[in-house]
UniProtKB/TrEMBL annotation, chain A:
Keywords: Signal. The keyword Zinc-finger does not apply. It comes from Rubricella aquisinus. The keyword Acetylation does not apply. This is Putative thiamine transport system substrate-binding protein.
From TrEMBL, chain B:
Keywords: Cell inner membrane, Cell membrane, Membrane, Transmembrane, Transmembrane helix, Transport. Pfam families: BPD_transp_1. GO terms for cellular component: plasma membrane. It comes from the Bacteria. It is a multi-pass membrane protein. This is Putative thiamine transport system permease protein. It is found in: Cell inner membrane; Cell membrane. The lineage of its organism: Bacteria, Pseudomonadati, Pseudomonadota, Alphaproteobacteria, Rhodobacterales. Residues 63-274, 360-551 form the ABC transmembrane type-1 domain. Belongs to the binding-protein-dependent transport system permease family.
Length: 403, 566
């Protein structure tokens, strides 16, 4: 045992002595040269087959164009990748880490940034960064109000949209208040994923936007405001809504896909997703009937961006940079926005694109259930990440443990 | 030189294989439970994680859920499997029941749970079959069936999976007891079939299946995947909550998670202790009842009916569930209350064929290698014990148990740090070794009792005829024990196929097996893909069990004394 410990210590010492950030993102030719022949391990949630297929197609393209191959490490939870990097740091493995790129945002990013587990800054040195719509989509550099500081690069925009079946419901409720009223008249036909699930907590934040007097306080950390008074209307609202939820709030679906399954099974009438193109894609995949449509609240719905980040000890940093750049390539972005592929909204600025690339976006069909950008309206900004944490905790105390 | 000498070191080697990773894993759990995790800034020993844990209001309900569902599932599984053997052993019906139930063993827990969920949910297959004609439901009713607060649906999924396991373990043990003649003697004395079996045979079988029962108890108490699919959520079971904290982006919750994991470990140990005490009470009560000489002949017909129905319900729940998932994998749009999908398509299968082949190959390679290592070490240990008169101490046995009773979520991140430290992580070899840690205990538990119960006079007889120790092993003992050896190997292989967290964490996410693919997809709840992977996850170990059942029957078709009457 003693010998094992000293061996481990020796490895840790050598590792930390040799630690250095070797790749310079601003010297792109050197990046390309070093990346050639590398295999990039991209840790990304693997729960959606269409996303997995899209990632595979990006991998094939990267192999063909840059000689860099891609392995998609399919996660059931992004935090597993964070744990992995953390374990490597705990073991003193400061280079040659197993993860090259992580699909990340929000609290996971905040945790990695705070614990200095990230490579960079690199995002603004990527050649395709010139097309990113920093002005029109401030969320691409503000991750839950946390400045990204070039430590992560955006690759998709998401916005909360509600889904309903026109065959069962003619006019959906278009505000937080109308939703509660509709639920009271149709008990058991609405629910949300149980916080701390990401989508479930987003729903709580959406309600918060609808019930508090001055939503601008949400951009500040909770410590800066009178939290209890500010959120009191949220708990009042939920106390009224809960008895009318699916299973009277005695059980909740765990995540977005399980919520989608409930609407597909006809157990609930209104569901929601963070991808405006999900419903159209699900219809195309025979998961939902073609009578399903989407809508947003009149006051707008919360939107944010998905990012990729590179761990500080990634073994193939150059390859990871090539992949991050390829993900914001106009042609790849147009493919991701195609509802037949993913239906993800682009992070790029149409006005900045060359004509031929713009034409790719113009040629896209919206998909039968997808709202046009005009109908989607402007997205509400994500509240400061501290709201998410506090509301989650309080929700669990109030609704999450009562038998 | 004594040729048997290297065997002396087999137990040591085995213990090292377990103690290294398990020790590191447990340390990696204990240290943060008391505040020590330098990577997260925890450098002093403190009780804060425990205070945080106690401050969570859901703690006692969650702990109680783990206890009640774990013990409940174990007791019910044991009763059902015992009743089936007692009522039907030696009949054609029994052979039929065994054939119906043994494939269930190879169905991964998660797949069985998903299948069951789709059967019993208000929008599930049973409800669809009865709607709208009988129930009048045009829409699924708003009834709480799955995720019920008491965890009954979750217990049901555990029971249908554990009954086949205990049944197979019982059968392996029966090969070493003179069960048929004992039962017949009891019947000649006027005892009923079931009652006679319980009084005469069960006391001899129980010590041999005690360890598998403990494994079932520990597993049921700390199971994660089944609890995620069918268990309650407000609060969930303790192990699910530990996993939730473990995967929370707020890294400071890791401390609390570690404390929860230690508590989970304590609960499992306490439950095992309580079970052991209950064994003595039941044994004393049983003796008292036996002394009264009541023959219990009247209850046979009823017991047989009940046993057969329960067996069929278990088999039906899993097979129909799996059938439903299979239909899903070919389904187009499939809405309530349609009994079958509107269209069928091969789309999912076509799109996945490449992934499936690659994942199946890795699954088989890892499973065969891990099982091979485990089997070799276990046989070497048992043989060393026999030849050198070594005794497996209670402490060594506890080590064997640690991989089975420490919740995987708590033990594996520690193991993963250990793997990175030694630089062995990320490759298929490391994954095989990690699997061996989990496979070995099951192989040992499956094989130890039949091995020790082997009639040593046969070895003595062979030695008198001039055979050396090696020849006794290879020429007499192993052939005679072929059935339990293959059964143990099949159990080990199935355990390996089902491993998720070790594959993910030790393989650095780079090794893809059917299970890692299936669980990643299961988090997305896509029944079509889950159905496809579940089917393959079942077929792979099923092949191993088929070998375990068929080969001995073929080889010993003309050896009556070696065939267990099925």
């Amino acid at each position: 045992m003693n010998r094992m410990i000293s061996t481990a210590a020796a490895i840790a010492l050598t590792a930390s002595a040799g630690f250095a950030q070797t790749v310079d993102p601003s010297d792109w030719d050197a990046v390309l040269a070093e990346a050639k022949g590398q295999t990039v391990y991209w840790n990304a949630w693997g729960g959606d087959q269409r996303i997995n297929d899209f990632i595979a197609s990006v991998g094939a393209q990267m192999e063909a164009e840059y000689g860099v191959s891609l392995e998609h490490v399919k996660l059931s939870d992004t935090a597993n990748a964070v744990t992995r990097v953390l374990s490597e740091k705990a073991a003193g493995q400061d280079q040659g880490g197993a993860i090259d790129l992580i699909w990340i945002n929000g609290a996971n990013f905040a945790a990695m940034k705070e614990n200095e587990l990230l490579f960079g800054p690199f995002a603004e040195q990527l050649p395709n960064w010139q097309y990113v719509d920093v002005e029109g989509k401030p969320a691409v550099i503000n991750d839950f109000t946390n400045p990204t500081e070039g430590l992560e690069s955006p690759w998709a925009m998401a916005q909360l949209v509600f889904e309903y079946d026109t065959a069962r419901l003619s006019e959906p409720p278009r505000s937080v208040a109308a939703l509660a009223e509709w639920a009271a008249n149709n008990p058991g036909r609405f629910t949300y994923p149980q916080p701390p699930d990401y989508l479930g907590t987003t729903f709580l934040k959406q309600v918060l936007y609808g019930v508090i007097e001055d939503p601008s306080v949400l951009q500040m950390p909770v410590e800066a405001v009178d939290y209890d008074v500010t959120v009191a209307p949220l708990w009042d609202y939920l106390d009224g809504l809960t008895p009318n939820l699916w299973r009277s709030g005695a059980a909740y679906p765990q995540n977005e896909p399980r919520l989608g399954q409930l609407v597909a099974d006809g157990e609930i009438d209104i569901s929601f997703a963070f991808n405006p193109g999900r419903a159209s894609a699900a219809i195309a995949n025979f998961e939902l009937p073609d009578t399903v449509r989407t809508f947003v609240f009149d006051q707008g719905t919360i939107g944010n961006a998905s990012f990729v980040a590179i761990p500080y000890n990634a073994a193939n940093q150059a390859g990871a940079l090539v992949l991050a750049n390829l993900l914001i390539d106009p042609e790849v972005q147009a493919r991701a926005q195609d509802p037949a592929v993913l239906g993800f909204q682009t992070v790029l600025n149409m006005d900045a694109l060359p004509t031929e690339d713009r034409a790719r976006f113009d040629a896209l069909e919206l998909g039968v259930a997808t709202l046009s950008p005009a109908d989607l309206g402007s997205a509400l900004l994500e509240p400061h990440a501290s709201w998410m944490t506090r509301i989650q905790q309080d929700w669990i105390t109030r609704y999450g443990v009562g038998q | 030189m004594n040729r048997g000498r290297p065997l002396r070191f087999a137990p040591l080697l085995t213990i090292l294989l377990l103690i290294g990773p398990v020790g590191a894993g447990v340390l990696g759990t204990l240290a943060p439970a008391f505040g020590y995790l330098p990577a997260l800034g925890g450098v002093s020993v403190t009780l804060d994680p425990w205070r945080d844990l106690m401050a969570w209001q859901g703690l006692w309900p969650a702990a109680w859920l783990s206890i009640s569902t774990g013990i409940g599932a174990t007791v019910i599984s044991l009763i059902i499997s015992t009743l089936i053997v007692a009522a039907w052993q030696g009949t054609r019906v029994f052979a039929f029941v065994m054939r119906a139930l043994s494939p269930l063993l190879s169905v991964p827990h998660a797949a069985a749970a998903f299948g069951l969920a789709f059967l019993i949910a208000p929008s599930g297959w049973i409800s669809r079959a009865l709607s709208p004609h009988i129930t009048g439901w045009e829409r699924p009713p708003d009834i709480l069936i799955t995720q019920d607060p008491m965890g009954l649906s979750m217990m049901a999924a555990l029971v249908v999976k554990e009954v086949p396991f205990l049944l197979l373990m019982t059968m392996a043990a029966l090969g070493q007891t003179d069960s048929l003649r004992m039962r017949m003697s009891a019947q000649v004395l006027g005892y009923g079939r079931v009652w006679g079996w319980l009084l005469a045979v069960f006391p001899r079988v129980y010590p041999q299946i005690r360890l598998p029962i403990y494994a079932v108890l520990a597993y049921s108490m700390s199971v994660v995947d089944v609890a995620l699919i069918l268990g309650p959520t407000r609060p969930p079971t303790l192990s699910v909550q530990v996993l939730t904290w473990m995967s929370d982006p707020d890294l400071s919750l890791r401390f609390q998670a570690a404390a929860g994991a230690v508590l989970q470990l304590g609960l499992v140990l306490a439950a095992l202790f309580a079970w052991r005490s209950a064994e003595r009470v039941v044994a004393r009560l049983g003796c008292g009842i036996a002394m009264r000489g009541h023959r219990g002949a009247g209850g046979d017909a009823a017991s047989r009916g009940v046993a057969l129905s329960l067996a069929m319900i278990c088999a039906g729940a899993v097979l129909f569930g799996l059938g439903a998932l299979t239909v899903w994998s070919f389904a187009g749009l499939w809405q309530f209350p349609d009994l079958l999908p509107q269209q069928l398509s091969l789309r999912v299968w076509m799109a996945q064929s490449g992934n499936l082949a690659a994942a199946t190959k890795d699954t088989v390679i890892i499973g065969v290698a891990a099982t091979g290592i485990a089997l070799l070490l276990v046989i070497a240990c048992l043989e060393a014990e026999y030849r050198h008169g070594l005794r497996t101490s209670g402490r060594a046995l506890l080590l064997l148990y640690i991989p089975l009773i420490v919740p995987q979520v708590a033990f594996l991140p520690g193991l993963s740090i250990f793997a990175i430290l030694t630089g062995v992580d990320g490759g298929i070899a490391a994954v095989i070794m990690a699997h061996a840690v989990f496979v070995l205990p099951y192989v040992f538990l499956s094989l130890a009792d039949p091995w020790r119960a082997w009639d040593q006079r046969l070895g003595l007889a062979a030695q008198t005829l001039g055979a050396g120790a090696e020849r006794v092993l290879w020429g007499v003992r192993l052939p005679m024990l072929l059935r339990p050896v293959l059964t143990a190997a099949a159990v080990g292989f199935a355990v390996s196929v089902g491993q998720y967290l070790p594959t993910l964490l030790i393989g650095a996410g780079r090794i893809e097996t059917l299970t890692t693919e299936a669980v990643a997809l299961a988090s997305g709840g896509n029944r079509r893909l889950i159905g496809m992977y579940a089917l393959l996850q079942m077929v792979t170990p099923l092949a191993a069990f088929t070998v375990a059942i068929l080969v001995p029957s073929l080889i010993y078709r003309n050896r009556r004394g070696l065939s267990v009457s099925v």
